[in-house]
Amino acid sequence: MWKQIGARESGKLRPNSFTNRIRSHRSSSLLLSNHKELLSPHRASINTLQVDLTEGRYLLSGASDASLAIFDIQRATEYDAGGLIAKHKPVLVDKQHENGHKYAISTAVWYPVDTGLFVTGSYDHHIKVWDTNTTEVVMDFKMPGKVYRTAMSTLATSHMLIAAATEDVQVRLCDMASGAFAHTLSGHRDGVMSVEWSTSSEWILMTGGCDGAIRFWDIRRAGCFSVLDQSHSQLGRRPPLVDPSATKVSTSKARAPPRKVGSGSSSKHSGNNKILKHAKGSGKQRLHPGLLTSQDRATAHYGAVLGLKATEDGMYLLSAGSDSRLRLWDIQSGCNTLVHYEMVRMQSSKAIQLAVTQDSGIVFLPCMTSVKGFDVWSGRSRMTLQGHYENVNCCCYSANDQELYTGGNDRQILTWSPPKLISDDADECGRTGQPSAVDEDNWSD
Amino acid sequence: MSTYNYVVTAHKPTNVTHSCVGNFTGPQELNLIIAKCTRIEIHLLTAHGLQPLLDVPIYGRIATLELFRSHGETQDLLFIATERYKFCVLQWDADAKEVVTRAMGDVSDRIGRPTDNGQIGIIDPDCRLIGLHLYDGLFKVIPFDNKGQLKEAFNIRLEELQVLDIKFLYGCSKPTIVVLYQDNKDARHVKTYEVSLKDKDFVEGPWSQNNLDNGAELLIPVPPPFGGVLIIGEETIVYCSASAFKAIPIRPSITRAYGRVDADGSRYLLGDLSGLLHLLVIVHEKEKVTGLKIELLGETSIASTISYLDNAFVYVGSSYGDSQLIKLNLQPDSKGSYVEVLERYVNLGPIVDFCVVDLERQGQGQVVTCSGAYKDGSLCIVRNGIGINEQASVELQGIKGMWSLRSATDDLYDTFLVVSFINETRILAMNVEDELEESEIEGFCSQVQTLFCHDAVYNQLVQITSSSVRLVSSESRELKNEWFPRPGFSINVATANASQVLLATRGGNLVYLEIENGKLVEINHAELKYDISCLDINPIGENSNRSNLAAVGMWTDISVKIFSLPDLTLKTEDHLGGEIIPRSVLLCAFEGIPYLLCALGDGHLLNYLLDMETGELTDRKKVSLGTQPITLRTFSSKNTTHVFAASDRPTVIYSSNKKLLYSNVNLKEVSHMCPFNSAAFPDSLAIAKEGDLTIGTIDDIQKLHIRSIPLGEHARRICHQETSRTFAICSLKYNQSGTEDSEMHFVRLLDDQTFDVKSSYALDQFEYGCSILSCSFSDDNNAYYCVGTAYVMPEENEPSKGRILVFAVEDRKLQLVAEKETKGAVYSLNAFNGKLLAAINQKIQLYKWMLREDGTRELQSECGHHGHILALYVQTRGDFIVVGDLMKSISLLIYKHEEGAIEERARDYNANWMSAVEILDDDIYLGAENNFNLFTVRKNSEGATDEERGRLEVVGEYHLGEFVNRFRHGSLVMRLPDSDIGQIPTVIFGTVNGVIGVIASLPQEQYLFMEKLQANLRKVIKGVGGLSHEQWRSFYNEKKTADSRNFLDGDLIESFLDLKKNRMEEIAKAMNVSVEEVMKRVEELTRLH
Q: Does ipTM surpass 0.85 in this model?
């Protein structure tokens, strides 16, 4: 570390390489944290975790007992062991809110622009938008089935759409600006387990269904424009990338229409999604021009697609399936990169939440009671994080702190962080052996 | 409150990052173009060396600098890409002598991760396209059309993720790149691709080569007839092409820079990290490569760029040492080196640490930097203003004028120094023992005040007093002729040169005399309306003995007039306005451009461009130099003429880049000055100040003076101890003997005057010096040096052990008096309430200085605070501790005396990776971060909630474009307590590129005025290449871009003074104030640095 600081100081190491090296070193040395503890208030399995995108300060968790919690992960509420272990109690818990969900919360995401709002989805068929400060539900969307996942685009500047993956075959886009459904995206042949926005374009949505398909949608156009095929792996002659300047032009042109549609439909049809323009085929799926029927049948996994995660550079997509496979896809070409990740057992009934480090170096995958960290490019297993006593459902990586948060059926939220050298001088105030303190806490309730 | 900050550069970047050679300014002109991170310099190669043509700032950090020539052009164009994804193509406008923008644009993408190994920008040798590698996995192509215009860019996927280098191959029918990359298993390969512009994609290239040297990092494309590429590794050099593969082993070295010698590409210069320069030769038979040969030429600075100029002249640009102009000789010198260093260009970068001291105790700060790296490490003493090195001094009160005279016209040296007083004139002369003693010139009248003296042609001297003009032989020293004014008209002012005399008598009579052999002849006279206040006939034309123009300053109507000689006809006049009369006028030429300078009684100086033919005065500019009347005199130093303006703020006026510059002289008040170039005191000046006559030499004429002390090792930390008058440094020495590089770490004690190493303390193996501090403790008044160290074990990522060493200086030797082991690296040490505050890994730890029973002392830990990732930078003020974390921005801690504990008060929750922190005042803290930004945060003690009080609010943001390593309070200029500027607190910073900058906290009123000025200047001064200043100064990191706020760019604001008059007026009008007002306020700010 001192050597790297010295090299940065004298200009031998580029500042961005310096941060990348330290980040990647830290993320590859994650251990159960010896200095940070999140005290989970949940009384049932934890299904979803997300750190806010603006400050990286608040962790949102949702559990099967319909409870929600928010933790301040930067500022501890109390300290233990002579200031060595920071304990974080939730700053907000909502167990039985009058307007809250009735059944398990399966998904909870922050509004990407600020921490004033967040969105939850539940098995009670509802998606709710909450005001963080007042803990009031400000918007409620009734969905046709259990909600598995919701997602909001981190890039969006011209829409406020919540993409919802539910039991239903259709993916719905809920417009927070109008309170109505903006689109339904038809194509999947079974329920949709996972949904992810592209990290390079605010218009591209990626969904993974129980039918084993991963579909790409451009929400400005009707139909799905690409279906990932696990057997399509020859990169061969690649088509050129979309010219970014050209896309910029088209985005500015296309900026106005969705708004109009949104506001118009909200006043006239108040939440009735069936009326929207491209759903008129009612049942019959419309194909994107140029997409062949054979391609439309392609699958990405044998079995359901349980989780999707796009890398931060917008070039790759990781998918986990109930076939116990993790795959890495090249988004532009839609090719399966054939990186071989070690086969692991995954729970196959529930949607899982993957996490990937900021530099796309390591992907974290919940595998039954442990979390595996794989090298994204080589597929080698880099670490196995064991600490939960029951199945892990979700993991969330904080790029600011290079920390991983995991939640499981054992009702715990565990923090995995780069180890801190505890430099305690002997002549200081006495302290107890701290690793045991961490272990104790796993039993604490 | 220090909310409003003004950032200005005191020393420009000197780290040379790029250089290239080509015909940029004209088809027949060979230019060297140098990039110094945020500036470019254009030089012209002449028979006498490098002649600077242009030095301009670029609103961006230069990532790529390439010259290219599109089809049918006779001149090269310059392509520049910046690290913030802007590019521009520049062309030279020969008429305006400036660069114009041919094209510009933005090449940023949403997609992709910024490359780790730096951005690559390359241009196809046949000028078909520009290739950029900015993001991992993407290769951006900007094609040229047939007319050489740039077309729309597109991206091509590049599967190789860890790209080390990309180059275009020569002589390919389709543009072809060669890519050096590293795979998942850390093996390195090269691969070629053809770029298909039609399909906007790659086609597999003609060849590839797997499993190269593990240290291969550099590709050199070889031009026709050979073609192919050289791959420079750490242990081998490989030549690779479709048809050939040749490799040679080399002595292990890391090569960072190359320069092509011949156009046919058969010889290359290679510069490595130990500063050795090699010549690589491609051995060939006709057009077939048969082998490679490498030869050591000698040692240079560690090269970051090498440009072969012409005729064995080579420019070596360096990031770690001084850049050099070298000549490669055909024969080796006595040491076996073929390298002859012709010129060195001082480089302060990288400034890893510095301290501000007042070594001369003049009340003026000097900066002592730890500069350079590896073998080129040095200490540099940076001082503002021009110093006078006093050689002799006599006490003499009431000097009214001084002139030096020679004993013969063709004598090289001055012999006499004529000193005039109110009622007498004394003559000093060099005697045979080279001492100055009082002498006599018989023909001179010594009972009255002398108005003017000068050497005249035919070995004569002229003395002008109020009653007569005397012509004296310089050989016999007898009076040869005397001229008297009309009775009752005594001479008021007079001037002369070698063959002419111009004088003014009472009532506005102007008389012109010519000096002939033994005779003064009145040629002409004129009667002006008013009395004359000052005169000048300094010859600036071709004839150095005669002037065709005379400058006259007038009372009453307050004007300057230009008369022609000998006919005394009025050519031009200019009314100065105001009520202050001109006190001194001077005709002079700087860099061949004639000027008229006119100094006023209130310390202002006007300068005009002068037309030698018509006498026309144009481009009037007014600056304020002081508050007292100014006397102007020319002098020459290093064969260049400068002007000395004697006043209460003595100033030297000189010209650089055809621009007049003013540099203050480090003397308090000077009434008169004259050059006195005697044999004993060559190139000296005689200066009359405060009752003294001083003879001394003058420093080189430049604003900042840098004295460099080479250490041969890399100094990392420095501090000064006033009581022992020493510096202590932490340094490391690289030993490259044998196969393995080893490092030795030392604490060294240096004398603060001579900079001799007085004492050294060698640290243990693997032990690094990380921090150093001079302090004393409560109930112990001795000053100690405290050194924090870390044991950097090869197997450990983070040091787990370190030491704090406490040294006393006894007999100018370091004596270890105490040591304390720590559980980690001691990144920072601060004196804190008579105790020692250390930052050790993630912890802040406070140590007491305890007296043991046996009378010895030890450090005992008192309390600590956890909760940082790495506490790298710590500053304290009172009980407050400000910590700059590795990646968690700034946090504020407080020491509670009663509880003996340190607690966190507030924190900035942004994820800034810090590089330096400083406390501006009780509430405002300044930080510099990893992405070259500055920001300020404010403590919010009055916040309503805990949350508000616990948060440091970001109040200022600014993109500096420089990596700051250290802030220190202090000032580079003499603070005159009576001026407003003296009250403005300043912080100095030092950066990797060798920039020394000043951050001044302005009062709000002044800030708002300057902010308005900056906004107006942005409209008038366009950035080179059309780059926007506003975008450049916006805070920028991976997560966000935000407009700069509460920081002003002083460099832009001060460029107001260089604008043309009409531009100035335009701006002043837009701001609703007078030009003079704006100038006055901007000039005040220029005195901050």
A: no
